Amino acid sequence: MLRVLFVHNSYLIRGGEDVVVEAEVSLLSNNGNMVLLAVQKNKAINSFYSKIKVFFNVAYSIQFKNWMSDKISEHKPDVVHVHNFFPLLSPSIYDACIDAGVPVVQTLHNYRAMCPGGLLMRDGVICEKCVTGSSYQSVLHSCYRSSVAGTFAVARMVEKHRGSGTWQYKVNRFIALTKFARDKFIEAGFPANKIIVKPNFTVDSDFLENKVRHSRKGGLFVGRLSHEKGLGTLLNAWETLDVPLKVAGSGPLETRLSDIACNGIKMLGTLDKNSVQQEMQQAAFLVMPSECYETFGLVIIEAFSQGLPVITSRLGGMAEIVEDGVTGLHFEAGNADDLAEKVEWISAHTKEREQMGRNARQTYLKNYTPEINYKQLMAIYQEAIDEA
After folding, report:
1. Taking Cα atoms as reference points, which of 330, 317, 350 lies closest to residue 120?
2. 3-class SS string, 108-143
3. Residue 41 is part of which domain span?
4. 145 and 7: one domain?
């Protein structure tokens, strides 16, 4: 049994990182470990004063270094697992761990440590200038929330810790969610020997084998309704298609999508996990048309667990998880014609689609179950502890 202290800065709107934190807490607890939570929430940034305070402390916060020291003294963990330190906690929390002699594991959920925008994307297209170059150039483009001041504060954080060796010396192990993400962080100067690829996982529940072969119809999109998720490409593709599509999720494009949805597109709004699972059991394929470097794409393995093949952009970690022609199909990111062609093919080739679904299910069982993930996570913790 290990005593593991999870550290997380949650955002205002619940997202994938929060889902992963909850899943890993349950995974460790269910296997007999003592998991302790230290969480700060962005809802605390609710005044002009608090925003100014975050601006000056986002690179290094003495307040949260002391907070971290108190949490370690209180819980006496064997290992600290940091999921997100931005924007309140800051990398100062690593120094509290070093002072206490506690090893640190950091999950790299996004690209914030090298890119102030967090997505390696600018003006709707992939941008890698900050991977090897100075992140201060992002200030010229207001990459963080379209704010010059906000972008400067985050760029200062990136450059401070890049220059001072934080990533080389203050974290014992990093968890990258895909090999693609690992390669990007290595390119940005992170130590290759400390970055281990461990994907996310999803719980296997209520899988119906017959659903792979029978009664499945149409496409399904599940995710945030925003530009970087490829919603524009999705809509453009469906203008030429006679295939039903269900869209589950919310976001800044929700109203616009509802107004222009056509050609058999049905808006489902935000669904809970059980409802998403039911929709996956009824769909013939999932569509993930993201135009950014998704660090993982949890919805893909959720689809795999239900025997559902995935049509995804030939981009980053998505193309790594979905094997073209085996567990789904790839299309050129942003190319609506290519997406429409792949949708027509998978809709017309029932036998091949069903085989892809069976392959997806087997891929899930081989790589993305809680049992497999638990062994991977515990091995990473042990490496960090042995090194400390």
Report:
1. 317
2. CCCCCCCCCCCCCEECCEECCHHHHCCHHHHHHHCC
3. 3-201+370-387
4. yes
